[in-house]
Amino acid sequence: MTRREIEEGLEKIFETYQKYDIGLYAIISKEDYRIIGSTGLLVHTIEEGNEYEICYRLSQKYWGSGLGTEAVKAVISYIQKEKKFFRLVSLIDPRNDKSIRVAIKAGAVFEKKILFHGKFFHVYLYS
Prior knowledge:
By secondary structure, the protein is of the alpha+beta class. Helix content is 35%, strand content 39%. It contains 3 helices and 6 strands; from the N terminus they run H-E-E-E-H-E-H-E-E. It has a 6-stranded mixed β-sheet.
């Protein structure tokens, strides 16, 4: 990512916290208390409506460990109990098989294809 893309991403995260009282959370290793990824929610305007997107990133060292799925399920549980959001999605690059597997294991189903910020994504809906 370019510096400008990082800055824009951080602005989006801060805006989401301020406007919606939700955001991203650190995923911390129980072994050594290091940050190994992030998960949480961002809000996007898609097709003239707000969508609450579950985002997740995990250090490559931890791919395939089940931690990504565990983190997504924890976010879903928290959001549905505490915030009462019932429509949660993930926007995933259709070439990202690993992220698609995490979403499906966490209960998502493919909903549709969209063009978002000039790139094609698949929308996965959590049920």
